[in-house]
Design goal:
Blueprint: H1 8-37, H2 40-68, H3 75-107, H4 114-140, H5 143-173, H6 178-209
Length: 211
Protein backbone atom coordinates (compact mmCIF):
# COMPACT_ATOMS: atom_id res chain seq x y z
CA UNK A 1 0.00 0.00 0.00
CA UNK A 2 1.28 3.45 -0.89
CA UNK A 3 0.65 6.23 1.61
CA UNK A 4 -1.14 8.31 -1.01
CA UNK A 5 -3.74 5.54 -1.28
CA UNK A 6 -4.08 4.99 2.46
CA UNK A 7 -7.43 5.43 4.11
CA UNK A 8 -8.41 8.70 5.75
CA UNK A 9 -7.52 7.46 9.22
CA UNK A 10 -3.93 6.74 8.20
CA UNK A 11 -3.67 10.16 6.56
CA UNK A 12 -4.95 11.65 9.81
CA UNK A 13 -2.16 9.82 11.64
CA UNK A 14 0.42 11.43 9.36
CA UNK A 15 -1.07 14.85 10.01
CA UNK A 16 -0.82 14.25 13.76
CA UNK A 17 2.79 13.09 13.44
CA UNK A 18 3.55 16.23 11.47
CA UNK A 19 2.06 18.33 14.25
CA UNK A 20 4.28 16.48 16.73
CA UNK A 21 7.28 17.82 14.81
CA UNK A 22 5.90 21.34 14.83
CA UNK A 23 5.22 21.07 18.56
CA UNK A 24 8.79 19.89 19.01
CA UNK A 25 9.88 23.01 17.17
CA UNK A 26 7.88 25.08 19.67
CA UNK A 27 9.51 23.25 22.59
CA UNK A 28 13.00 23.97 21.30
CA UNK A 29 12.15 27.58 20.44
CA UNK A 30 10.94 28.22 24.00
CA UNK A 31 13.99 26.42 25.35
CA UNK A 32 16.27 28.63 23.27
CA UNK A 33 14.51 31.74 24.57
CA UNK A 34 14.83 30.45 28.13
CA UNK A 35 18.52 29.77 27.52
CA UNK A 36 19.19 33.25 26.13
CA UNK A 37 16.96 35.18 28.55
CA UNK A 38 17.65 33.06 31.66
CA UNK A 39 13.93 32.48 32.29
CA UNK A 40 12.82 29.22 33.90
CA UNK A 41 9.17 30.06 33.17
CA UNK A 42 9.85 29.55 29.45
CA UNK A 43 11.40 26.16 30.16
CA UNK A 44 8.37 25.13 32.21
CA UNK A 45 6.07 26.24 29.38
CA UNK A 46 8.11 24.13 26.95
CA UNK A 47 7.78 21.11 29.25
CA UNK A 48 3.98 21.29 29.00
CA UNK A 49 4.18 21.09 25.22
CA UNK A 50 6.66 18.22 25.44
CA UNK A 51 4.25 16.36 27.71
CA UNK A 52 1.51 16.83 25.10
CA UNK A 53 3.79 15.31 22.43
CA UNK A 54 4.37 12.24 24.59
CA UNK A 55 0.62 11.87 25.12
CA UNK A 56 0.09 12.15 21.36
CA UNK A 57 2.64 9.41 20.77
CA UNK A 58 0.88 7.07 23.20
CA UNK A 59 -2.47 7.71 21.52
CA UNK A 60 -1.06 7.13 18.04
CA UNK A 61 0.67 3.87 18.96
CA UNK A 62 -2.58 2.61 20.49
CA UNK A 63 -4.52 3.64 17.39
CA UNK A 64 -2.02 1.97 15.04
CA UNK A 65 -1.94 -1.18 17.15
CA UNK A 66 -5.73 -1.42 16.90
CA UNK A 67 -5.59 -0.89 13.15
CA UNK A 68 -2.93 -3.57 12.78
CA UNK A 69 -5.36 -6.04 14.35
CA UNK A 70 -7.70 -5.63 11.39
CA UNK A 71 -7.19 -8.35 8.80
CA UNK A 72 -7.52 -5.94 5.85
CA UNK A 73 -4.75 -3.58 7.02
CA UNK A 74 -1.29 -3.45 5.45
CA UNK A 75 0.81 -4.63 8.38
CA UNK A 76 4.07 -3.35 6.90
CA UNK A 77 2.61 0.11 6.48
CA UNK A 78 1.42 0.17 10.09
CA UNK A 79 4.78 -1.12 11.31
CA UNK A 80 6.61 1.63 9.44
CA UNK A 81 4.25 4.31 10.71
CA UNK A 82 4.86 3.09 14.27
CA UNK A 83 8.60 3.44 13.65
CA UNK A 84 8.16 7.02 12.42
CA UNK A 85 6.13 7.88 15.52
CA UNK A 86 8.72 6.16 17.72
CA UNK A 87 11.59 8.20 16.28
CA UNK A 88 9.70 11.45 16.84
CA UNK A 89 9.07 10.28 20.41
CA UNK A 90 12.81 9.65 20.89
CA UNK A 91 13.59 13.07 19.45
CA UNK A 92 11.21 14.49 22.07
CA UNK A 93 13.16 12.63 24.76
CA UNK A 94 16.19 14.52 23.49
CA UNK A 95 14.26 17.75 23.86
CA UNK A 96 13.46 16.79 27.45
CA UNK A 97 17.16 16.34 28.12
CA UNK A 98 17.92 19.80 26.81
CA UNK A 99 15.14 21.33 28.90
CA UNK A 100 16.55 19.71 32.02
CA UNK A 101 20.07 20.97 31.36
CA UNK A 102 19.02 24.47 30.40
CA UNK A 103 16.84 24.68 33.50
CA UNK A 104 19.82 23.65 35.64
CA UNK A 105 21.98 26.25 33.93
CA UNK A 106 19.48 29.03 34.60
CA UNK A 107 18.57 27.93 38.15
CA UNK A 108 22.20 27.61 39.22
CA UNK A 109 23.36 30.71 37.39
CA UNK A 110 25.95 28.79 35.38
CA UNK A 111 27.60 30.95 32.73
CA UNK A 112 28.85 29.95 29.29
CA UNK A 113 31.52 31.84 27.39
CA UNK A 114 30.29 34.11 24.61
CA UNK A 115 31.60 31.61 22.09
CA UNK A 116 29.84 28.76 23.88
CA UNK A 117 26.56 30.67 23.83
CA UNK A 118 26.93 31.40 20.11
CA UNK A 119 27.69 27.77 19.35
CA UNK A 120 24.70 26.42 21.27
CA UNK A 121 22.48 29.07 19.70
CA UNK A 122 23.61 28.02 16.23
CA UNK A 123 22.96 24.34 16.93
CA UNK A 124 19.53 25.22 18.33
CA UNK A 125 18.65 27.00 15.08
CA UNK A 126 19.90 24.13 12.93
CA UNK A 127 17.80 21.67 14.93
CA UNK A 128 14.76 23.94 14.73
CA UNK A 129 15.11 23.94 10.96
CA UNK A 130 15.25 20.15 10.86
CA UNK A 131 12.16 19.79 13.05
CA UNK A 132 10.18 22.19 10.87
CA UNK A 133 11.33 20.51 7.67
CA UNK A 134 10.48 17.06 9.04
CA UNK A 135 6.96 18.26 9.77
CA UNK A 136 6.64 19.48 6.19
CA UNK A 137 8.09 16.25 4.75
CA UNK A 138 5.62 14.07 6.65
CA UNK A 139 2.79 15.98 4.98
CA UNK A 140 4.29 16.22 1.48
CA UNK A 141 6.76 13.30 1.14
CA UNK A 142 8.90 15.72 -0.87
CA UNK A 143 12.15 14.12 -2.11
CA UNK A 144 13.92 17.48 -2.34
CA UNK A 145 13.20 18.15 1.33
CA UNK A 146 14.34 14.63 2.19
CA UNK A 147 17.74 15.35 0.62
CA UNK A 148 17.82 18.68 2.43
CA UNK A 149 17.40 16.89 5.77
CA UNK A 150 20.09 14.36 4.88
CA UNK A 151 22.53 17.15 3.96
CA UNK A 152 21.58 19.16 7.03
CA UNK A 153 22.15 16.12 9.24
CA UNK A 154 25.64 15.61 7.83
CA UNK A 155 26.47 19.31 8.21
CA UNK A 156 25.14 19.36 11.78
CA UNK A 157 27.40 16.50 12.84
CA UNK A 158 30.44 18.16 11.33
CA UNK A 159 29.68 21.44 13.08
CA UNK A 160 28.92 19.73 16.42
CA UNK A 161 32.21 17.81 16.26
CA UNK A 162 34.13 21.00 15.53
CA UNK A 163 32.40 22.82 18.38
CA UNK A 164 33.18 19.98 20.79
CA UNK A 165 36.88 20.16 19.90
CA UNK A 166 36.93 23.93 20.38
CA UNK A 167 35.13 23.45 23.68
CA UNK A 168 37.84 21.06 24.85
CA UNK A 169 40.43 23.73 24.05
CA UNK A 170 38.50 26.28 26.13
CA UNK A 171 38.29 23.81 29.01
CA UNK A 172 42.04 23.18 28.92
CA UNK A 173 42.75 26.92 28.87
CA UNK A 174 40.43 27.50 31.83
CA UNK A 175 38.02 29.64 29.82
CA UNK A 176 35.26 27.09 30.48
CA UNK A 177 34.56 25.77 33.97
CA UNK A 178 33.80 22.06 34.70
CA UNK A 179 30.14 22.69 35.60
CA UNK A 180 29.42 24.70 32.48
CA UNK A 181 31.40 22.15 30.46
CA UNK A 182 29.14 19.30 31.58
CA UNK A 183 25.98 21.24 30.74
CA UNK A 184 27.38 22.35 27.38
CA UNK A 185 28.29 18.81 26.34
CA UNK A 186 24.96 17.40 27.53
CA UNK A 187 23.07 19.96 25.45
CA UNK A 188 25.15 19.26 22.35
CA UNK A 189 24.70 15.51 22.86
CA UNK A 190 20.92 15.87 23.20
CA UNK A 191 20.73 18.03 20.07
CA UNK A 192 22.73 15.41 18.18
CA UNK A 193 20.29 12.70 19.27
CA UNK A 194 17.34 14.82 18.15
CA UNK A 195 18.66 15.34 14.63
CA UNK A 196 19.58 11.64 14.37
CA UNK A 197 16.04 10.56 15.20
CA UNK A 198 14.59 13.15 12.85
CA UNK A 199 16.72 11.77 10.05
CA UNK A 200 15.65 8.22 10.91
CA UNK A 201 11.95 9.19 10.99
CA UNK A 202 12.21 10.83 7.57
CA UNK A 203 14.03 7.86 6.05
CA UNK A 204 11.53 5.40 7.51
CA UNK A 205 8.69 7.52 6.10
CA UNK A 206 10.05 7.10 2.58
CA UNK A 207 10.45 3.36 3.10
CA UNK A 208 6.78 3.42 4.07
CA UNK A 209 5.93 5.37 0.92
CA UNK A 210 7.33 2.52 -1.20
CA UNK A 211 5.33 -0.17 0.59
Amino acid sequence: MVIADADEEVKAVLERVSRMCFKGESVLSLCMDGFMKHKIALIDEAKKISHAIHNEENELITLLTNKAAKSDMDKQLIKSLMAVVGHIEMATNGLDGILQNVKSKVAEGVLFSDKGVNEISHLFKETLDMLKTAGDIILTRNEVLRKYVADKYKSFNQIADAYSEEHEDRLIKGVCQPKSSSLYLNIVDSLSKIVWHIRQAVDRLFVTSRC
